[in-house]
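PROTOCOL LOG
Step 1. Enter all chains and additional molecules of the complex.
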Amino acid sequence: MSEGSTPHLDEEALQAFLDGEIGPRERELVESHLAACGDCLSRLDDLRHLFRAIEAIPDLPLERDLTPAVLHALRRPRAGAARLRWVAALQLAFAAAILITAVPVVASALEVSARMESWVAAAQVVLQGSLGGWVAWRASVETALAGLWQSMTKLRPAATAVMDFWPWIVAFAVLGLMANGILLRWPRGSMRRPDSAHRGRWS
Amino acid sequence: MEEPTDRALVLRTRQGDVDAFGELVRRYQTSVFNVCYRLLGERREAEDLAQEAFLRAFRRLHTFDADRPFGPWMRRVAANLCLNHLSRASPPRLPLQDETDLAAGSTERIPEAVRLRGERAEMLRQAILELPAHYRAVIELRHFHEMRYAEISQALGIPVSDVKSHLYRARRKLAERLEGHV
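Step 2. Run joint prediction.
Step 3. Record the structure below.
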């Protein structure tokens, strides 16, 4: 390949060559051209100097030490976490208060103890029935279902009792929600939200 | 007393020693700040983003392979943060200039210029800062992070052909600005 007989290498190819971004076959062609073409070799040298100059730009000095601010930001969430634990404990106390108030009322309204006995009896029948054959098992299932249906009809007084306490329930629910809101909005350090990549502006 | 290695500091940080991370910040804050400055072109903003880059690195330290050098990883975190920041920035704040704007060669964005030694290096730094953001990004990733075209393509979400053409045009602009100085 002699100078003048082959078109000069374009600059994009020279850059890719210097970047090591061309394949072995292409590299061979570029190298053989460079061996014969002083112009392209000179352009390659200019580019090489430019690359070195870019990479040799000295760092600017920092005008302030970033360490204290970074450490402060890293430690701040710990204090927040301690406060968070208190709020969570408070919310737990509210939940416990709701349970303590509501459970006896609901239990008595639903006649839990009586119904539990009937459910246990039904479960025994099912068990015995399943051991005694298909017909007996089917009969026992029917008995159990009947017992269950009967106990379901007792839910109406329970609903009435719950309705009597609705102001308390609403009050606890509101307080619970407020506490939950505090939990969710509690500061999470000074860090911004993780960035999502917004691509498409680099083309 | 011998200075602890980066690896030792990373391991101590993972065990909850925040001061060990502080030492890493002391060691790398200048280079991280410079990554941000080259990409953003504004000192205050670069300092803020550098600080945030360290916070992000702290949160993601569990993903870092402690057997690899910490500096390049840290600078990469900073570069990614700045690129995301640039891609979200409103056009009036960080305009993606047209090539025609480059000819104007405004120096208003680099108030530090007068304080720097080395006319050529400073001219080059200034020329890079005056490039459009997408050209600055490829120059930064290629020359300062030694990323390959495919990696840059992935980082910026653009085709490799765009990476190649951006680099080509950016370098041409830099060469034109430096003609007679390099």
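Step 4. Note key features.
Chain A has two domains: 11-55, 77-185.
The CA atoms of residues 14 and 44 of chain A lie 6 Å apart.
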